[in-house]
Amino acid sequence: MDWNSIISNSLRSGISQQAIIFALAAIGLNLHFGYTGLLNFGQVAFMAAGAYGVGITTNTLGAPLWVGIIVGMLAGVVLGLLLGLPTLRLKADYLAIVTIAVGEIIRLVVRAAVLSDTTGGSNGINGFANSFQDWNPFNNSATYGFRLFDRINLEFSGADVWELLVGWTLVLLSVFVVWRLIRSPWGRVLRSIREDEDAATALGKDVFRFKMQSLILGGSFGTLAGIFYAVQQNSVQPDNYATQQTFFALTAAILGGLATIWGPVVGAMLFWIILSFTENVLIELIDNNIMPDSIMERSQVGPVRFMLVGLTLMLLMIFRPQGIFGDKREIAIDERK
Amino acid sequence: MMGLVPSASASAQTEGESVETTLLAQTEAGGDKSPVEGVEIIVYDAVIVDRQIESTGAEVGRASSDATGYVSVALPAPGQYAVELNVDTLPAGVELVRADKQILPVEARIGQPTRVLFNLAEGDAAGAARNKTSDSVLTRGARLLFEGIIFGLIIGLCAIGLSLIYGTTGLVNFALSEQIVFGALVAYFLNSILGLNFIIAALIAFVVGGLGSAALDLGLWRPLRKRGTGLTAMMIISIGLALFLRFFFLFLFGERSRPYEQYAVQTKILFSVGPVDVLPKELIIIVVGLFLLIGTAVGLRRTKLGKAMRAVADSNDLAASTGIDVDRVVTSVWFVGGTLVTAGAVFFGLNSQINWLMGQQLLLLVFAAVTLGGLGTDFGAMVGGLVIGIFTFMATLVVAPELKNVGALLVMILILMFRPQGIFGRAERIG
Amino acid sequence: MNASNEMSDAGETIEFGRTSGGGGAAGLQKEWDNPAIGAFDGVDKAPGSPKPDPILVAREVSRSFGGLRAVDVEHVEIQRGAITALIGPNGAGKTTFFNLLTNFDHPDTGTVKFNGEETSGVRSHELAAKGMVRTFQLTKVLAKMSVLDNMMLAAQNQSGEVMRRGLMNGWRRQENEVEQRAREILDEFNMTHMESEYAGALSGGQRKLLEMARAMMANPSLIMLDEPMAGVNPALTQSLLGHVKRLRSEGITVMFVEHDMDVVQDISDWVVVMAEGSIIAEGPPRSIGENQAVVDAYLGSSHAALTDEIREAVEQVPADTDLTDLPEGDDTDG
After folding, report:
1. A&C contacts, CB < 8 Å
2. Do C66 and B426 make contact, defined as CB atoms within 8 angstroms?
3. What is the CB neighbour count within 10 angstroms for residue A287?
4. What sections of B82-175 are H helices per DSSP?
């Protein structure tokens, strides 16, 4: 068992690009669900809108990357409007089902062969964000970072450092925006909507407008996640935008603590640390023949890790819905509605 | 860096992938088969979704069958391909039984040959003449309608299961997708591993699926209700359960799709209605499916348990005050719902194949059906299922097959915009 | 204790008024001034009768659910500055009518005018912002927010509620003013000590109080209370009644749905009776129990107990007492 590499891989996962993507998506879900009580199960649709917004604008239409990023963000806003208009007046269950459906519609449409000239079909769009690495001030052939206790490798390539720097800056900016807004009267109205829409309406609040703003703003963090994902990978793949991504991000948000400022970020980091740790330990067990093949083969490690996600989500909701940082008294989902 | 999606991890390191088939033609109805030589098979790159070819790309290779009817085409890598039988090379008098099965989807596995099957018949042995590729829209429409009805029954069975549970407990049960996979797997285990006759395996699976569903209620949902867990929280718990089970089934079963034993390769046409050929498995689905749907509707209205279920659905407290044991009724609903869902699942597997993602594929359509009909109404769920099933298939007359689910989901959203309580639901009174 | 037992004569009722002024220290021994005295002089005691200065007028308002006609109100006017009770047997359509008046539901036919302005097409939150603020039968406190947050939410025209302004600091000054006002009102309602508690931690009666205080915070000209006393213990009922009277003394029109006839007799200036969706009687509280249509409606509704209560209440009030005149003298408005 190579514990050094297990720990190193887990820690690296905790600050990886994946953790950034999940943190951004979860910040949005937290605004939706934790603060406004909106059940957006289609955060992945916002991610796809951003990613394909960039991909199509730059690759298919040949625009520069920065234009693509702007178009991607706008695509997320438009999606928010389209999603919100028919659903925000309906019961929460319906919003959940419609958002899932829209996420799936987007995935099916972008991977459709009939649109492959635009979206690349099931192959997606590749190689459109080279200029992102052109802007990289770090040296790609050098390594940055250090070894913890001389053993645990926390060194990164220049390209990684650049991506991580941009990504975590985006996360911090998003956290700042949410923190400012939630402490303002605007945030107070959001929380009142989470508690009781009718009460907020009776006190003169335009519930529909606030829900729409929350949906679009929270969706924009998801859009940002999708754009970052696409640019960092220099590729957009339709099957990376499957329904369950939303649920993984939701698990991260709940893990950290809904209705808290830092919960989704810490949740996303922990989510990836746990996933990576499990995967690495299992692989070591199998490779060292401690775990016999009759019980588990290497190809089954993937499923086991995601079984763990499902289990985590269940157990959290049953035993600790407030997550790590949340205040149990403030978790709206605790009540029968 | 880890992939976001586990299924994206398949890599093309091993060699030796190929597509192979043995071409045999039925010489007379129910009679022997003889090998067909010199027939060409062409393989293309393809995109496959839900075991349907969405698009084909460049040709990968072609070959002709030998004297035993065997033909094999080597593939560059595992992945998705389309295999076409060149009908122009068929000997005179030999025809494809199903003209729409001229091109078959293949998901080639790593390092091993993948078998496909073309059903050929001589002369009028299988009434093959009826199935020309140049069918009129009307003919294709009739066939799609028939397939849509079958699919609609499958959706309807699952939808009524979801709807019953929602009606009595208020839970939007996302784990229904995995109850579908569970039921289908139980039948597969009994049928293909233990070798039981399919009908018997299916019947046992119905009961096991119902018991599994009731066990979920007893072990998970009832304790949560007792704790006063909120409905939204329970919905999210059901999502966690769905994720857990889905990947557990993947762990057990792998990514491959598999058919049931007896009816996988059935070509014998029972009878035809106009341009529509009815296969035995299709007849089974229609007869048993309708029996279950109508039986449920009647049972809910006539039997004591059914009336108790409807009373509980109307109002838990009121039902309890009239001496109904609400807990028992709810568990019974989970049993009945689980049985119906399993029936839908087994029929779905019978109609195509079973795999670990089938539940997820069906779930959104089931939601669409239930929303369409109105949450919590049994009749609405049935009609919603039929409408969604037929719409999904008929849509392929005008849109690419890969987009057929998109249409159904869009219809659901439109209905919600203009009639949020569904077609058969009643408007709620506020306050 | 059961308040009705104490209602042996008018004098007792005045006593209640005194103790119930109850909220703030200033109001403890006070009776609230009643600007509605005399407002109903000469008003016809018949369904749909015109009022001298109506704040709310509903005309031919109807609403059906399925085949059932839940509300079918030909005409009703609500007098400004008075306390009007809306009573009726269960299922009479009172709450539905409330929903229609506040645009939480929309009538199939008919029009509602608030301050002379037609309300059709006005969304319910806009109506609230215009001064028609309602509460709900089942209290809707915002459980996972503090009492103070509940109050501050209700202030109207907050610049910080505009998203882009929320990001900046410009809203802070107004926020301080809002907070100060919220504290003042909480003080009036004697709830200062619980301002930082979660509203969900309050008792049923305290929630009703908070809901009323919160409605005050929204600066209403018409406040619509749906069963404000339901499920509240009798001690707190008196305090709530005092607050309702104080609202009136501050010039706010009050309309409320209530089952408890004692409450109706105690505080209302005018009573409107609904049965089977329609308005069947109107009049001052003293006379309403004598109305045969009202007694029939309650009898017919299988709520015999309520009918008994009406009769009892009617018998207990001396015929020559006009209850609207009762709160007199101590007009030291706090």
Report:
1. 106
2. yes
3. 12
4. 137-169
Distance to chain B for A54, nearest Cα, Å? 19
pLDDT higher than threshold 90 for residue B206: yes
* Domain harbouring C241, CATH code: 3.40.50.300
| Closest CA in chain A for residue B235 | A93
Of the ranges A110-124, A319-333, B148-162, C202-216, which one carries the lowest mean pLDDT score? A319-333
Average pLDDT over residues A85-100: 83
- Strands (E) across chain A are located at 125-126, 143-148, 152-157, 235-236
From CA A239, how far away is CA B80, in angstroms rounded?
Answer: 15
- Asked if the C-beta of C135 comes within 8 angstroms of chain B's C-beta atoms, the answer is no
The answer to whether residue C197 sits within a structural domain is no
pLDDT, tens only, A130-160 = 889 888 888 888 888 888 887 888 888 889 9
Strands B276-278 and C117-118: unpaired
Residue pointed to by tokens 């009174």: B429
> Please, which chains are in contact with C (at least 3 CB pairs closer than 8 A)?
A, B
Residue C302 within any structural domain of the chain: no
| Averaged pLDDT of chain A | 90
Distance between CA atoms of residues A11 and A152, nearest Å: 9
Q: What are the pLDDT digits (tens) for C53-104? A: 999 999 999 998 877 888 999 999 999 999 999 998 888 888 899 999 999 9
pLDDT tens per residue across span A295-311: 888 888 889 999 999 99
Q: What is the number of CB-based contacts under 8 A between chain A and chain B? A: 166
Q: Produce one character per residue of C311-321: b if its CB has 16 or more CB atoms within 10 Å, e if not.
A: eebbebbeeee
**pLDDT above 70 (res C3):** no
List beta partners, residue C73. C61
Q: Is pLDDT at C319 greater than 50 in this prediction?
A: no
pLDDT tens digits along B87-114: 778 887 777 777 677 888 888 776 677 8
Domains defined for chain B, CATH in brackets:
17-134 (2.60.40.10), 139-418 (1.10.3470)
Contact between B431 and C66 using a beta-carbon 8 Å cutoff: no
> Are B412 and A39 an interchain contact pair (Cβ–Cβ within 8 Å)?
no
Q: Which residues of A55-93 are buried (b: 16+ CB within 10 A; e: fewer)?
A: bbbbbeeebebeebbebbbbbbbebbeebbebbbeebbb
CATH class (in words) of the domain with range A3-334 = mainly alpha
Question: What pLDDT does B328 receive?
Answer: 92
SS in 3 state form for B329-397?
HHHHHHHHHHHHHHHHHHHHHHHCCECCCHHHHHHHHHHHHHHHHCCCCHHHHHHHHHHHHHHHHHHHH
Q: Within an 8 Å CB–CB cutoff, is residue C137 touching chain B?
A: yes
Beta bridge partners of residue B273, listed in sequence order: B276
> DSSP letters of C89-157?
STTSSHHHHHHHHTTSS--SEEEEEETTEE-TT--HHHHHHTTEEE--SS----TTSBHHHHHHHT-SS
Residue C59 lies in a domain: yes
Question: With b meaning 16 or more CB within 10 Å and e meaning fewer, what string describes B347-380?
Answer: bbbbbbbbbbbbbbbbbbbbbbbbbbbbbbbbbb
How far is it, in rounded angstroms, from Cα B222 to Cα B220? 6
The number of distinct structural domains making up chain C is: 1
Structural domain span for residue C211: 3-141+202-285
CA nearest neighbour of A329 among C145, C231, C150: C145
